[in-house]
Design a protein that fits this description.
The protein is mainly α and 261 residues long. It has nine helices and two strands; from the N terminus they run H-H-H-H-H-E-H-H-E-H-H.
Length: 261
Amino acid sequence: MAGVSQELSDPLRPRRKGIYLLPNLLTTGCLFSGFYAVVAAIDKHFAHAGLAVFIAMVFDTLDVFTDRLTHTESAFGKEYDSLADMVAFGVAPAIVSYQWGVVRITEYGHSWGRFGWLACFFYAVAAALRLARFNARAPSADKRYFEGLPSPSAAAIVAAFVWFFADWHEPGLTGLVVAFAVTAIAGALMVSRFGYPSFKQFDLDKRVRFVYLLLVPLTFVLIAIDPPTMLLSVFGTYALSAPALWAGRRVRRLWRPVARS
């Protein structure tokens, strides 16, 4: 006991530090899913690679909710989560898209192949910039909105697109160009300044209409019937919603002077 009390009273002795187990295990699950997506893409199992990216999203979401419910947020956890997100939602989707299409598009010329890998690299860089900007502005940012498309949503679009066409063995030049264009556009939306709803302020205790409650199981049923199609539709709609709203506001502003005159 004397040794223990001496250790506690010694101000020069460094305190032992630890980490929270559950949230960091969930972050590790996110990291593993991203790593598996890369391995599956290298092995040409693109449907499994796309599914792995969505499993990484589940782990990432559970990690966020666990931090808030158990009040186990820490500086270590934030840094670890950001690194895991870069692997799962930055590197993995870029490699999945690259492995799926670059070999095929190179058959149409080296210039097309260069376009493919540059689109994938641009996506990876955009994801890194998006995460860095989010970390830098997190303390002062509006919690109701994300500035730019969140990296998990961008990863979902790329993964769902590849998963959707996983059995499309001969997509042709047009299909390959569309695939890499989708990858590049997802990257551009990440570094854009469009505002996307974050749903962080969603109140679970708030009363909602019964029809809204029915939408939740209906959505899961539709996803279970055809996962890649529904996931691509859901996240594609979310990604395009902010540019569409911005364009709508611009059109209304242009038409106001005409209507007044």
